[in-house]
UniProtKB/TrEMBL annotation:
<dbReference type="InterPro" id="IPR045863">
    <property type="entry name" value="CorA_TM1_TM2"/>
</dbReference>
<comment type="similarity">
    <text>Belongs to the CorA metal ion transporter (MIT) (TC 1.A.35) family.</text>
</comment>
<keyword id="KW-0472">Membrane</keyword>
<feature type="transmembrane region" description="Helical">
    <location>
        <begin position="393"/>
        <end position="415"/>
    </location>
</feature>
<keyword id="KW-1133">Transmembrane helix</keyword>
<feature type="region of interest" description="Disordered">
    <location>
        <begin position="1"/>
        <end position="21"/>
    </location>
</feature>
<dbReference type="GO" id="GO:0016020">
    <property type="term" value="C:membrane"/>
</dbReference>
<feature type="transmembrane region" description="Helical">
    <location>
        <begin position="362"/>
        <end position="381"/>
    </location>
</feature>
<dbReference type="InterPro" id="IPR045861">
    <property type="entry name" value="CorA_cytoplasmic_dom"/>
</dbReference>
<feature type="region of interest" description="Disordered">
    <location>
        <begin position="64"/>
        <end position="114"/>
    </location>
</feature>
<dbReference type="InterPro" id="IPR044089">
    <property type="entry name" value="Alr1-like"/>
</dbReference>
<dbReference type="GO" id="GO:0010961">
    <property type="term" value="P:intracellular magnesium ion homeostasis"/>
</dbReference>
<dbReference type="InterPro" id="IPR002523">
    <property type="entry name" value="MgTranspt_CorA/ZnTranspt_ZntB"/>
</dbReference>
<dbReference type="Pfam" id="PF01544">
    <property type="entry name" value="CorA"/>
</dbReference>
<dbReference type="GO" id="GO:0015095">
    <property type="term" value="F:magnesium ion transmembrane transporter activity"/>
</dbReference>
<protein>
    <submittedName>
        <fullName>Cora-domain-containing protein</fullName>
    </submittedName>
</protein>
<keyword id="KW-0812">Transmembrane</keyword>
Length: 422
């Protein structure tokens, strides 16, 4: 912890361990009230979560980083009030059973309970400092800095790393449903979690700890389990909404009228896009949780205990069920899409049949009228016409009668032919 505490002539807003100051670490520990809170520190020994803009703001006045992480409360100010409220008795001296983090046993949580430091959008300097302080392997640091997208579980000498993907849950955000990587480093004494965009998961887990603190033992393994469980539960409402939409599409795709199916293709496409996005996010989660649950035994030194393995097996069942449901919804949407296209094809076929029927009637009418037009056209030429010099309408009426008889015979023959063909 001494790496956290440099010494310069300009003290920061909070004094850390007397003469030790933290503003000497450039890019990490300088303060600024215009920046958002990026660090959240929780410990079973403290009554509330500490939120800070930089690492230097985490310890209270008169409290060192070692005291903070080992659960030593800050000393009283002037003998009257503590710098931060706490339900446990405050003392300026360390207890007799106190041991630094590096000297505490790896297989048991310290007497003050587990700590949890959540970091949003860590810088390269902060990652280097945290890697030195907590002895984080360079490969783990590289995965976090490069925002590794593959979900996995890796065991190291003094910790294990869980890469688990969540998503942007703000429905009004332009990045809604985009992947959000969570990196969880679990020690025996505490947990480090990293993410590069705001997410409600840490707050949800802290709220859950507050509700269940009297009934459970909050350990670093339990905190990692709670984070994984909260990420898994975040998919539940989305999958339920997709289920309602899929059922609606499946029922309406074949019964809607032609005027009401204009937006059906858009609904199918939007729903399939959500399903495929969730399937991509759910891809390797069940395998990661299964791999972590398998290591919950005495053969793995840093793996979670067996009771956490039961919780992880329950999460695995939920993940498998949700993945199967999404695959089922994708099949239903694929079938609905095919049914929609088939319905459109049937409607287009009906329209073509109607057009062909009208065209066949027009063709029959033209067949009857063309010979009549030929006769009248011949009589309209500048030639001698039979009966031209006769003062009588006998020729004219005879020609009209012949044309009418031809029209009747042709129309009747065409009607009989079309009826016989049908």
């Amino acid at each position: 912890m001494a790496l956290f505490e440099g010494s310069t002539s300009d003290p920061p807003p909070f004094t850390i361990d007397g003469a030790h100051t933290t503003s000497g670490i450039p890019g990490i520990l300088h303060t600024g009230h215009d920046r958002p809170y990026r660090f959240s520190f929780y410990s079973n020994a403290f009554p509330a979560t500490v939120h800070a803009r930089s690492l230097s703001e985490l310890p209270a006045e008169g409290q060192s980083f070692s005291d903070l992480f080992t659960g030593i409360p800050p000393p009283k100010r002037g003998g009257d009030q503590p710098t931060r409220p706490s339900p446990v008795p405050l003392a300026g001296e360390r207890p007799s059973n106190y041991k630094p983090i590096s000297e505490q046993p790896r297989h048991s949580t310290s007497d003050t309970g587990a700590w949890w430091l959540d970091i949003q959008n860590p810088t390269d300097e902060e990652m280097k400092m945290l890697s030195k302080v907590f002895s984080i392997h360079p490969l783990t640091t590289e995965d976090i800095q490069m925002e590794e997208t593959r979900e996995k579980i890796e065991l190291f000498r003094n910790y294990y790393l869980v890469c688990f993907r969540s998503f942007d849950q703000d429905p009004y955000s332009p990045t809604h449903l985009e992947p959000l990587n969570m990196y969880i480093i679990v020690f025996r004494e505490g947990t480090l979690s990293f993410h590069f965009r705001p997410t409600p998961h840490p707050q949800n887990v802290r709220r859950r700890i507050k509700q269940l603190k009297d009934y459970i033992s909050v350990t670093s393994d339990w905190i990692s389990y709670a984070l994984i469980d909260d990420i898994t539960d975040a998919f539940g409402p989305l999958i339920q909404g997709i289920e309602y939409e899929v059922d609606s599409i499946d029922e309406l795709v074949l019964i809607l009228k032609e005027a009401e199916t204009s937006d059906m293709l858009r609904r199918i496409g939007t729903c399939r896009k959500k399903v495929m996005g969730l399937l991509r996010l759910m891809g390797n989660k069940a395998d990661v949780v299964k791999g972590l649950a398998k290591r919950c035994n005495e053969h793995w030194r840093v793996a979670p205990t067996s009771d956490i393995g039961l919780y992880l097996s329950d999460i695995q069942d939920h993940l498998i069920t949700m993945t199967q449901n999404l695959n089922h919804y994708e099949k239903i949407l694929s079938r609905s899409h095919s049914n929609y296209l088939a319905q459109i094809s049937i409607e287009m076929t009906d329209a073509n049949n109607q057009i062909n029927d009208v065209l066949s009637k027009l063709t029959a009418l033209g067949t009857v009228l063309i010979p009549m037009n030929l006769v009248t056209g011949l009589w309209g030429m500048n030639v001698h016409v039979p009966g031209q010099n006769i003062e009588s309408y006998a020729w004219f009426l005879s020609i009209i009668a012949v044309l009418a008889a031809f029209a009747i015979i042709g129309g009747y023959s065409t009607y009989r032919f079309m009826v016989h063909r049908r």
